[in-house]
Write a structure and sequence with these properties.
By secondary structure, the chain is of the alpha/beta class. It folds into three domains: about 1-55, MYOD Basic-Helix-Loop-Helix Domain, subunit B (Irregular), CATH 4.10.280.50; about 75-330, Type I PLP-dependent aspartate aminotransferase-like (Major domain) (Aspartate Aminotransferase, domain 2, 3-Layer(aba) Sandwich); about 345-460, Alpha-Beta Complex (Aspartate Aminotransferase, domain 1). It contains 14 helices and 13 strands. A seven-stranded mixed sheet has the order 1-7-6-5-4-2-3, with helices on both faces. It has a four-stranded antiparallel sheet with strand order 10-11-13-12. The protein has a two-stranded antiparallel ribbon with strand order 8-9. Strand 4, helix 9 (about 220-235) and strand 5 form a beta-alpha-beta unit. The radius of gyration is 25 Å and the shape is globular. It starts with a helix and ends with a helix. The structure holds pyridoxal-5'-phosphate. Pyridoxal-5'-phosphate binds near residues 167, 210, 248 and 275.
């Protein structure tokens, strides 16, 4: 009632249905700490937030992120129409669950699940949740096995490379597993069987491998590590699973190079995650985790809830979430099919190659991921560039609106500074041309400018920046 009276006291122009926005709301600072006492018209609230968000970068020029920044209007429409459905309410929204299960079936076949296996899986908020769930299942399987053998189960360890995403470190810390991380070296930014072998013991719950690393887009030697683990299984009886982090590559390689062996065709690959919101081509908020067979997932991690109506098994870290991601994913599956995904991935790869080759040809850059598997271009500045760094270049490009990430690699390759360009579906050849010319102009400007002393120091400390 009070709200209505307040609104009635406003002048017509302030009621929110006037043709223009009331200056009352535009001459004051927006609430930042306290919930405001009074309401404001919907259109004023909308416009205030909308305008402020113009300060964000233009998603189409965001080449730093792997996450989808463009979808077809019809895909977007199906997502918006269902944004108010809580995905977890399977009893209330049974058809959404049916569609989710179809996505799992499609992914299982895309990742070459063997016929004799009953592959299971679930959607997640993204690859981080998917990875934690996948690794947790391996920890539990290992623990149950050790318990059954009457052996200690208090010192689990996990092996992966420093090329893994931060969510792998998070898993080790949050779930109390010793992290045996293989450092990088200058010139080697992925892991192989020789590096993994000395770290393995009977307490290894899993070996983590990456199909397209966040840092350079390169791929760990998954097939070789699988062979090593098969040998160890035969010799010592330790059945150590591989989890493949296919966050980006899981939606690229099956289409760009279907014969490349990385998935459930390899015997020890027991779980795979993939980000629907990266090359799955869906807006942020959807990832997937699949286990090769239902036996690879420990039953004691499944919870049954009855308070949503019906009996509902759940095995996600998260509970409530919207249904948009799952439905957007299914839209892409039936709309694009293998043909469409292959088309998109090959275009992205062609444009990434075009960019990489031209940047190298300029003599100013050295490409790190030659023969790229992901449509990303990871570059360092050529050794002859002395008076600016990739950090300066990234900042200079920002002035034009481009967002390009620049970072140093993790231990022991910290001296290597990289600039990374992620090519996505909506990045056309014309945009690539504009980007190339903008990069060249930015390099010329930087070459002419005097670098501040502290930055000169940084370059000396990082000789191959
Ligand atoms: C290889 C890899 N794994 C995991 C993640 C985390 O994915 P998400 O952001 O979907 O949680 C990323 C994100 O870029 C990634 O590149």
């Amino acid at each position: 009632m009070k709200k209505k009276n307040d609104l009635e006291q406003l002048k017509d122009s302030e009621k929110g249905h006037a043709s223009t926005y009331s200056s009352r709301y535009f001459k004051e600072s927006v609430p930042k700490f306290e919930l405001p006492e009074k309401s404001m018209p919907a259109n004023a609230a909308y416009q205030l937030i909308h305008d402020e968000l113009n300060m964000d970068c233009n998603p189409a020029l965001n080449l730093a992120s792997f996450v989808t920044t463009w979808m077809e209007p019809e895909g977007q429409k199906i997502m918006m129409e269902n944004m108010h459905k809580n995905f977890i309410d399977h009893d209330e929204y049974p058809q959404t669950e049916v569609i989710h299960n179809r996505c799992i079936n499609i992914l299982a076949r895309l990742f070459n699940s063997p016929k004799e296996c009953k592959t299971i899986g679930t959607c997640t908020v993204g690859s981080s949740e998917a990875i934690m769930l996948g690794l947790l299942a391996h920890k539990w399987k290992w623990k149950n096995r050790r318990k059954a053998e009457n052996k200690p189960y208090d010192k689990p360890n996990i092996i992966f490379g420093a090329d893994a995403h931060i969510c792998w470190d998070k898993f080790a810390k949050y779930f109390d597993v010793e992290m045996r991380m293989i450092p990088m070296e200058k010139g080697r930014y992925v892991i192989n069987a020789d590096l993994v072998k000395p770290l393995i013991d009977e307490n290894t719950i899993c070996v983590g491998t990456i199909l397209g690393t966040t840092f350079t887009g390169q791929v760990d030697a998954i097939e070789e590590i699988n062979t090593l683990l098969l040998e160890i299984k035969k010799e010592k009886g330790w059945d150590i699973p591989i989890h493949v982090d296919g966050a980006s590559g899981g939606f690229v390689v099956p289409f760009s190079d279907p014969s490349y062996l990385w998935d459930f065709r390899l015997e020890q690959v027991k779980s795979i995650n993939v980000s629907g919101h990266k090359y799955g081509l869906v807006y942020p908020g959807v990832g997937w985790i699949l286990w090769r067979d239902e036996n690879d997932f420990p039953e004691d991690l499944i919870f049954n809830v009855n308070y949503l109506g019906g009996k509902m098994p759940t095995y996600t870290l998260n509970f409530s979430r919207n249904s948009m991601g799952v439905l957007g994913q299914y839209y892409n599956f039936i709309r694009l099919g293998r043909e469409g995904y292959a088309h998109v991935m090959k275009n992205c790869l062609a444009n990434a190659q075009y960019l990489g080759q031209n940047l190298e040809k300029s003599g100013k850059f050295h490409m790190i991921n030659q023969g790229q598997i992901l449509p990303i271009v990871a570059l360092r500045l050529a050794d002859n560039i002395k008076n600016f760094t990739v950090f300066h270049l990234s900042a200079e490009m920002r002035k034009r609106g481009w967002v390009i990430s620049a970072y140093t690699l993790p231990a022991n390759a910290e001296e290597v500074a990289i600039m990374r360009i992620v090519v996505k579906e909506n990045f056309s050849r014309e945009m690539a041309e504009i980007l190339l010319s903008d990069i060249m102009e930015a390099c010329e400007r930087l070459a002419k400018s005097q670098m501040p002393d502290e930055d000169q120091d940084k370059v000396r400390k990082h000789p191959i920046c």
